[in-house]
Each structure stands twice: as structure tokens, then as C-alpha cells.
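Data card: per-record layout.
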Amino acid sequence: MQTEITAPVSIFDDVGRLCNFGWARGPFFHYDRELLWTPGRLITESERYIIFSPTHLFAFELYDAGALGHISICAVSLLDKAISRKFEKLSFPTGILKLPNQSEETIIKTAINDSLIEFICIEDGGRIIKIDAPQLSHNNRLRGEVVLMTQEDAQSIVTYAPWRRQTERFQLIRCSPWYTTEGVMQFENKPLLFNKGRAWGIYEWARIARPKKDIHYWAAACGMYKGQQIGFNVGYGSADSTAGTENAFFVNGVLHKLDQVTFKISPSNWLEPWHFTSNNNRLEMTFIPVQHNSYQNNFLFYSLRTRQFFGFFFGKITLDDGSLLHFNNITGITERRKTDN
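The structure for this 341-residue chain is written out next.
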């Protein structure tokens, strides 16, 4: 049985051991890096946003893994399938990105070489993203500002899980796949408008004390279908998800909890359709990739290999009240991330 946490708790007990594993509908788990026993080179802290309009998708990530890290910017044209990106490797970045302990305390301003990124948390759970990146691939420049707005009382999926037989390792992840987005991005020498009701955003926050090897699959999406805003977050990896899986579906900001979800990927061609099913037959979903982004980061004893795919989701979900919801053409992302220390 999964364990729902319904009030604020610490992830440590009185003597510093990990406790209170489970899942929550909000940021109830208190994380403090200063209390960790884990060596700094095994701690990962990251902040990630994916925003998209009917024509373009942009993904921004700040990633600090102790011995190495990166700043990643990816711009995808959903119409002609073109991609432009910037991947800035960071050696020993611990603390440089100044990522906060809590997801609701996000005020981050990062300037690396010629790029400037700002993530700002505002009142009512909204977010502001400011970007100025003049040297993306294909001589493209990306600059602009967008505001991510939330619905009143919108819920998030937050999971806190250990690794089996590794008492000091854990995975704490939050995903909010329901933002509406407004603003302008200047890309390919033309303005791209993000209009409320036609543009969306996904926020992911992660704090992880890693084992030596890990592999993690993830997918998330958001959009409007037949007058309802829907979104989801599904994923799994080598962490012990007995107390709470990452899998949840959202309708107008309300969370509907799922148990296990399986990713079915063609081993010969990852650009073929992906299929998703849940163990209790509540979810059946297909993903159609339109573009692929991959990168590898290696330094001394640590490596990170990531494969991302952007595209559209189709399927059906049985909600918590037993009603059946069909959805089509919802924009999102899938990913496989593998780490090795």
C-alpha cells in the first residue's frame, strides 16, 4: 500500500536517519542539505522547466551533481521537427547554481559564460522564467520572459523514496504538470507568443542522494482537451517505490493517483511510438515522438547519459471516481537518464 503524507514532515528522524517515506499532494517533505550524511559527490540537486506553445517547446535545466553538473537549454520546433540546443558542462559545481532547499523558495539567477537564466517563484505558486542565451546551436539566440500561472489549490505529485539496502540514499522529487504560460520568447529572429489557454508549462524539482548506479524513466505532459486542463507525471527507476510511486494524472489541477506504470519502448528504434500501461488497467497511453535530444556528461568517476524525446500523447485514464477520460494530442516529454559513479 502506498503511504500518503498529508502534513509537513522532515525526511530525517531525531538522529539523522531517513524516515517518513511516501507521497504527497504538495511540498510537505522538508529537505536540508546541511543535514545529509551522504558525500557531496553523490548528491544531485536539479530544477527543470518545460514550456510549450502549439508550435514550439523549450526545456531548461539546472543540474548540480557535486563532481559535475550542467546548464541545458533545448528549443524544439514541433512543426518542422528542428532542434537547437546549448549544453554547458560544469566541473565541481557544488553550490555555484545556488539551488534552494525547498521548491517553494526558488529564486535562482545563474550567469554562465554568455548565458543568463532566472527562475523566480512568485505569489500563489506562480513562476517567472527569464532567458538570454545568445549561442545556441545553428547560430540561434533565445531570449525572453514568460510567466507560469497556477490554478487555485492545484496539487503536485511529490515522492520520497529510499534505495533498498542503502540506508543513506534517497530520491525526493516534485512534479507540477499544470501551469498555464504567458509571455514572449525571441527565437530564430522572430517573437514566439505564449498565450494563456494555448501554452503550458511543467516544473520538476529533484533532490537525490544517489547510489553508485541508477537508471530512471520519466514522462510528463500538459494541455487542454475538451474544455479540461489535463496533465500527468509518470516514471520509475531503481529506487524503492513501495511507499509511493511517481505516477499521477491531473484534471484541472486535481491529482488522481496511479500505482505502477510500465514504459514499452521499441529496442531497435526509440522514435517509434511508446506505449504506457498501468498494473491496474487504469491507464492506456501512446506517445508519438517528433524530436530527439541526447547528451552525455563524463568527469573522473561520474557519468550521466540522458535521452529525451518530445512529442504528443494519446490515451485514456480511469479517474479516482471511476469515470473514464479520453485525451488526444497532449504535448510532452519522455526521458531515460542513467547515472554511474
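Known properties of this structure: Residues 68 and 299 are 7 Å apart (CA to CA). The longest strand covers residues 166-187.

See the next section for split statistics.
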